[in-house]
Amino acid sequence: MTLKTVALVALVGSLAATTACDSLGQAMTAHTDVVARAGGHELSVERAASLLAANPQIPAQPDVVNAVANLWVDYILLATAAAQDSTMRNIKLDAVIEPVAEQEVVFKLREKVLQIDTVLTDDELRQMFEQSGTGLQVRARHILLRVPSDATPQQRDSVIALAQQIRQRASAGEDFAKLAGEYGQDGTRETGGDLGFFGRNQMVKPFEDAAFALQPGQISDLVETPFGLHIIKLEERRTPKFEDFRDSFLAEAKQQRIAEAEEAYVKGLTDPMNIQVEAGAYEIMRDMANNAEKPLRGRAANRVLVKYKGGDFNASDFQKFLRRIPAQTRVQIPPRSDDELKQLLENLTRNEILIAEASRQGLDVPQTRIDSVKTDLYEQLSLIVQQVGLNNVQPQQGETKEQAIERRVVALIEATVKGEQEMIPLGSLSYQLRDQFGGEIFERSIPAVVAKLEAGRPTQQGLPGSGQPMPQPMPGTPPAPPAGSGQ
């Protein structure tokens, strides 16, 4: 975990089972025919279904309904803010700016505490180059015997026995290429198992390690990879010239020294704090990643996920992280293993410790820098509003301003559903708009939208032989949100 990595975690950088009061409150305030509310507007089940019905190829699925409902909330609130102030400066950006400030103070800490000697003589650099094997390539042949994933122990033993016999024959001097042509079970059997030249990180690690450990003419022991059992013969080693790689290797060597120094500093700072992940933290993380839009209240917000000397990292801190990262990154969290989630939690905690250390040392971001980032974001928001036609929305005859805003947003979403318009995702700004102007999704109403959408479609749509196209994902994947938004 380097300082640079920690800073990036800060930049990229709910509970499904919230308190009973939360569930009861939603039940009391949400009607079953309302999918979402935002800034005094309501998205009905009927309206949501009609929006999705604009494209008959869109699947009638809860996640699609949820995505459309969230777009509706975000852009109703954005249009509402624009109607109040065309410069968008009525939107509070502190939560959006925070990860930028955190990143910069960690970089300042890095510059202050690390004194790294990156001067290297050519002799030192040449020695490091030769030891690293940078640019080295090998040419190898292999014989692959596959082991079925559902193989019984007896079947597996049979494959191993055959592989050992083939290896013994090759080691005794039989033509390796002919053996590969006879026994190989992949496409290389046609070329005698020849894999050509390859460098580091081009093969799966067990295969690479075995191949690079051989000298020309040598044959490996059996090597197991996800593809099966391999017997490898090394044909050639192609050693690069130091002069051809000197400049690029020098840059890599300097970066390695910096990374090692950063890692040593972070370890020295955080190890004495005895970071300990609390029992049940991983399931809480998974639940929160699936429900990042839901507000945390009461004890749920203060649930400790990690304890360390002098502090803790709680559910509220984790939700802040979740709201900074893109949705496509967030959905990758629940399926992760406990070990991977443990590493994420520990990294986030180390990041928190580093930010606190930077503050302790009096490091901060000048207000002029904060103001500059805010100005850039306001300008980008104004540009987005103009691009989608939400600036200066005027009521038609008989309309109120609110009705005009809703008409325009509905038209935008309908065009997006049809693939005619791209709406930019608002990232972490979405949560700020909801906190400031009020917005929420009522998941209990989503199945009603799915049912209504299905009821309005031909029963055989999308079935093989029906002549109808299979449902496709919603077209028009939006581009990235504004720079500096933390997404």
Give a short overview.
The protein is α+β, with helices and mostly antiparallel strands. Helices cover 52% and strands 10% of the residues.
Major sheet: arrangement of strands: 4-3-6-5
Q: For this structure, what is the CATH class of the domain at 136-238? A: Alpha Beta
Please mark out the parts with pLDDT under 50 across 5 or more consecutive residues, or reply none: 1-30, 460-487
Estimate the global geometry from the Cα principal axes: extended
Helix and strand content put the structural class at: alpha+beta
Q: Architecture of the domain at 136-238 in CATH? A: Roll
Number of strands: 10
Distance between the termini: 21 Å
Secondary-structure blueprint:
Elements lengths: L2 H9 L8 H10 L4 E5 L2 E4 H8 L9 H23 L9 H20 L8 H11 L4 E9 L7 H19 L4 H8 L10 E5 L6 H8 L10 E3 L2 E11 L3 H29 L5 E2 L3 H10 L8 H4 L1 E5 L2 E4 H8 L4 H4 L7 H23 L6 H21 L13 H17 L11 H9 L1 E3 L4 H10 L32
Q: What structural keywords apply?
A:
single chain, 4-stranded antiparallel β-sheet, alpha+beta, Chitinase A, domain 3, 19 helices
